């Protein structure tokens, strides 16, 4: 349920991050939604309204530059020592207390109406969007550029690209199982759709998204008939034992899919699956190890 709530509140959109190669100056920038963002130079205190972006801040910025975190930010450990400002609903008074010079937000998590209220308090809000792994890596570079750590962020993003590309090469000639990632194993059954970072991570890991339709929603609700039609080879949700006594007991007709018949039903780390942050390559590796397990020596 925690993963489902995180996804539905954090359905991240697509697109690049236009400021990723711009120097920050007292000027007006455009964020990934094309919104104008006015900055009076490099911000001294920043905050993010999503755990994935908080992870980026701790990766790139000096810890003292991070003014606060949200109630959902639990990684890295240093995040637990920061003041907490609720992001859902947004604690506007709390934001005024910690006084960030810039707030980062992810499209789909923070409503535009909340961003406008934050900006009415004199705090600029910069949105990022993600639909591919590359969007996430550009997002790291954007955070570095806007916070005065462009060189460091560039090195880190390039290192992650190198690791991602190495995994791609390792899996390029492997069979490509059809993978269904269920984020709400009840009726309606919500899954990761095709137009998501998950699909791109899966491609790098050597699989394909079993969902063969591009739905308007990034986390569409599927019928049992549709799941039978696409017949996934692998299901990512809870582990096989739990799913066998809950999901598949509730929907016994789905025991006909290949994933159940071959006991290829796995639980992966919720945070890695749901957060488009700097651990994105770690998530690719976890997916790769599930769908292409290495033989035991």
Automatic annotation (TrEMBL):
Keywords: Signal
Domain Fe/B12 periplasmic-binding: 45-295
Recorded superkingdom: Bacteria
Gene3D superfamilies (UniProt xref): Nitrogenase molybdenum iron protein domain
UniProt keyword Ubl conjugation, yes or no: no
Protein name: Vitamin B12 ABC transporter, substrate-binding protein BtuF
Species: uncultured Cytophagales bacterium
